[in-house]
Design brief:
The protein is α/β, with parallel strands linked by helices and about 500 residues long. About 35% of the residues lie in helices and about 20% in strands.
Length: about 500
């Protein structure tokens, strides 16, 4: 039996079991096969999603399907009611949610749930750096919610065209259900709830490490705040399931207006593919890692500071690959190494450097001779402080925990660096350190990056750059974005409608 791509099995009556070795057509002209593990696990009521870009076969257990469907059902029902909700009610919701998180008595069970999540993650050898809901994260959540409350109201009118006998008005309106899949960070609740600002509703699935914390936030802070403000409870709905499959089920629901995948790497790319083939718009960047070019006209001191300040912590906009022009190797490579070592000293951990095999000689030999303990998410490991790579490995994003990791490449000129960026990077952030305005303009025109600058890379953040809360960033890994920037904010999640204002009752065509 061959399953065609259209049979992605969202109806359990279509298939009750799978046999090992069953061929499945995907992408129109390719075939993959059911393996023994999938065949043994598949049960009646489960769903099979065939990722058309890769051939991945994703089993979605019936319980995960039900959890995602229940949450989307609630959000769809709530969206129907949001048109009658006043702005003052939404303001009240944010203020009430923030007040509950700030209240020690209300926060106590949330804190207990988070402690349990952290301990469980540690026992499983998981990183807990972003999982701990400490005082700093708690304050950030409160400030974020109040930031959404205080977002300045904008006119809904986008454009007016006066035809004399009648007038056309284009105006913004709410879009629909927005789905988020987050990594295990409790503070994502404040981010996700931003979509309510413009009358949308939200469904979120959080990583399993933080699910207990999420449940406690919903029970003790989120749902009571919705009720107090008179908003429909389903306006912000949690997918109460720990499996990755719940995220696949959520993103394959065709009722979504937008699917937002926060994070980076293969998991985000897979989620995005599931959403896109289901007809859902997507905001995601599958890979992080910023690039920087130290050009022939770079000021060495400015370059050193840009490297240093771009490596303060590991997030998507952290410096990952740095290119230096060959004529400036004598001073820019030492400046780069000083910046890297300063960043490492700030974190109290050793630096880890990668260099192309062809450029090995530009790095002092002691970097290759020295073994250091490199801090990673799964613990420290004894490694050489410097290693060599082949050119294709410029596309690797270094996922470090404490020890700053970065790749250095020597290029003939900025144009070669841009060629490498366009070929290997995630097409995300590019900084050019240069004193030549013509060179800056040329690089900006030719680099396929949504974010370009002339200094450190960490400015790429909606809150920092735009002064408004951010819902997510997007790179151009799967193409340029239609009519919007790579920063997703609450005010950008809308549709544009048109209304006719007729002045002459005898208007006709």
């Amino acid at each position: 039996m061959t399953l065609r791509p259209s049979v992605l099995l969202m109806d359990p009556s279509l298939l009750v079991r799978l046999e090992s070795g069953t061929p499945i057509v995907y992408g129109g002209d390719r075939v993959t096969y059911v393996d023994d593990e999938l065949a043994a696990a598949f049960q009646a009521g489960d769903a099979l999603i065939v990722v058309q870009s890769t051939g991945d076969l994703l089993r979605v257990p019936s319980a995960d399907r039900a959890a995602a469907r229940e949450a989307v059902d609630a959000a769809v029902g709530a969206f129907d009611q949001m048109g009658d909700v006043a702005d003052e009610q939404i303001d009240h919701f944010y203020a009430e949610f923030a007040a509950r998180l700030a209240d020690d008595a209300v926060f106590a069970p949330i804190e207990q749930a988070n402690a349990a999540d952290v301990e469980n993650a540690r026992q499983r050898g998981r990183s807990v750096t972003r999982l701990i809901l400490d005082d700093k994260m708690r304050r950030g959540m409160v400030e974020g919610l109040l930031g959404w409350r205080d977002v300045a109201a904008e006119s809904d009118i986008v454009n007016v065209i006066d035809h004399g006998q009648w007038r056309l008005e284009q105006f913004r309106d709410r879009l629909g259900v927005v789905a988020f899949v987050f990594e295990g960070r409790p503070n994502v609740f404040a981010d996700a709830c931003g979509v309510l600002r413009s009358g949308n509703t939200v469904v979120f699935r959080i990583g399993s490490d933080a699910l207990g914390t999420a449940r406690a936030i919903v029970e003790h802070a989120l749902n009571p705040a919705l009720k107090e403000a008179g908003l429909p409870v389903g306006a912000a709905a949690l997918v109460d399931a720990s499996s990755h499959a719940a995220g696949w089920a959520l993103f394959s629901d065709p009722r979504l207006a937008l699917a937002v995948a926060r994070g980076s790497g293969a998991a985000v790319r897979q989620l995005s593919a599931v959403a896109q083939q289901s007809g859902n718009a997507v905001s995601a960047h599958g890979t992080g890692g910023a690039w920087m070019i130290g050009s022939s006209t770079a000021d060495a001191h400015s370059f050193e500071r840009a490297v240093h300040r771009s490596l303060d912590r590991k997030v998507c906009n952290t410096l990952n690959v740095c290119c230096v022009t060959r004529d400036r190797v004598p001073d820019l490579v030492p400046a780069f190494l000083r910046g890297l070592e300063k960043a490492a000293a700030d974190r109290g951990a050793p630096a880890k450097l990668y260099v192309l095999e062809r450029d090995r000689e530009v790095i002092p030999a002691e970097w290759f001779d020295r073994m250091v303990l490199v801090a990673r998410a799964d613990g420290p490991s004894d490694e050489p402080q410097a290693e060599t790579l082949v050119e294709a490995q410029l596309g690797v994003e270094w996922e470090w925990e404490d020890s700053p990791e970065v790749t250095l490449a020597v290029v003939d000129d900025a144009d070669e660096a841009v060629d490498l960026f366009n070929r290997y990077s995630p097409q995300f952030v590019l900084a050019l350190i240069s004193e030549d305005d013509d060179e800056r303009q040329r690089v900006e025109r030719s680099a396929n990056a949504p974010f370009v600058g002339n200094g450190y890379t960490r400015w790429v953040d909606g809150q920092f750059a735009l002064g408004t809360p951010e819902l997510g960033l997007s790179n151009w890994e799967t193409g340029r974005l239609l009519a919007r920037s790579g920063v997703l904010s609450g005010s950008t999640i809308h549709t544009v409608r048109m209304r006719s204002i007729q002045v002459d009752p005898d208007l006709h065509r």
